[in-house]
User: What shape does this take?
Amino acid sequence: MIHLLQVNPSTSDASSYLPVAIQVIFAVGLVVVLMVLTHLLGPRRKTTDKLQTFASGIENHGDARQPIAIKYFLTAILFVLFDVEVIFFYPYAVNFKELGWSGFWAVLLFVAFFLCGFIYIIKKGALKWED
Amino acid sequence: MNALILSAVLGVIMMYCGFMFKAKSAVRGVAIAGLVLLLVVNVMESYGTVFFHIDTHGMMRFDRFALLFNSIMFFSVFVYFLLSAKDMEKIGVNYGEYFALIYFVLCGIVLASSFRSLLILFLGIEIISIPLYILTGSDKKNLKSNEASLKYFLMGSFSTGLMLMGIALIYGASGTFNVENMHLAQIRPAYLPVTGMLLLLFSMSFKVSAAPFHFWTPDVYDGAPTVFTSFMATIVKAAVFIAFIRLFDETFTGLSGQWKLWISVITAATLFIGNITAVFQQSVKRMLAYSSIAQAGFMLMAIYSMNSDAKEGILLYTAAYSLATIGIFAVLNKMGDYTFDGFNGLARQQPFIAVVIAIFLFSLAGIPLTAGFVAKFYMLKAVLATGTGLWLVIFSVLMAAVSVYYYFRVIQAMYFREGQANIEASTSFKLTLGAVAALVILLGLFPGLLIYFYYF
Assistant: This one.
């Protein structure tokens, strides 16, 4: 079995895709087997309470599709944006010494562009909560 | 490199101008001055003055073809700003941001025209597309604008997905993103690069709205605010075409046996569907959307023929098509009624503007003495020079004859119908429009004026 995983990558004929095929068969097979098994083995007790939407144990009421103020979305989107910026610091922190000064200037430029955006959204009033 | 960095910086500057200047004319002034600067800087780079020396690791190369094309695009945007920038005020309150988004699109155009790596191609196409989704939906209170924006976004992201899939397959086959050392023709088995190439062909056809991938175009162009339709239908379409041509003529040359037939069928279908459907339109704006599909068919012939005539031709074609279409849209912006009947009797009220529109329409239809004629001539010559595709030439000439019908309906409405069509046009607007029309005729008489810059 192990020799299948050690196919020379330079020979790109159809047989080199065998590991991929095995993985696909395994992935599909696992899902099908689990679904069938739970249906066959699991006990079945249907009640109306179980078919309702789960809302932390509270009785649900009303429709979820109602207009919500745009400022919630704005804050959420801007949070994601600046969160991603922080994520970019992790690879930089790991390679901090190797990248040296040129890396420092590159990151500084990156942060400067983000700062431009940050000043822009504050000036535009995107973070103003009270109308 | 000059234009790439300057356009991005100018985009940020325009963002800040939006809230720094209360007067809209000040924002407009900065935008126009910035564009002149961009054009100057780009021309300087064409003649060897490079301000920023950045090692791109062979991912971009600024050759003469890319630089001249960028200059043509910047000049077209300059004309577009002069004619239509005032009309952007009517769309919404974020006046500075519209210019900022247009500058970001220009940044993407620079990337797309000089890519040497498929990653840069992807980046360029995306930087072009994403600001356009916003510009399409910028008329927030208008339901049609919202619909157009959503449609454009969904179709655009779908075709971007196809493009990424194609790039992934090509990378899998060749092991590199760099288009210069791919050697796709030597890869055996050939199905990986060919599948990847076809996926890229389909996604690029989506972006330039070639049939049968054109279905988003009429709705999006019709729904978007007219000023931005003008921008999308001319500058953006031409920019994607340059990326398309560079990709297929330079990267996929070795596979040309595989895609030549596809391209010729797509070209014929685009010409047929664009022209025939345009005949049945009642709205001039929608007619121009279909006309842009039909003109894309002619530009596709440059990809089919892959020779130096085609490269000269596509430069001329983008210039001729962009200038004429920007001019017509600039007048259409000011009309209250976008139907053909809305133009009834315009020649009596505004004789000068009627003449200028007639010149632009002559150019689009390919009547001699205009730039459009020479551009179409170069395209047909390029296809004939390949020695194949005579049927394509004959078919496209027939389709160009069909296009005369719907272009001349506007002229007929202006000159031979009774009506009260009128627009408010300032003297400077008329002068600019007249200068553009003069340029269209000048290029038609001396196409060498533009081609000259390609070689010297």
Q: What stands out?
A: Chain A has two domains: 2-51, 70-124. Residues 70-124 of chain A form one domain. DSSP finds four helices and no strands in chain A. Chain A touches chain B at residues 12-13, 113, 116, 120, 123-124 (CB under 8 Å).
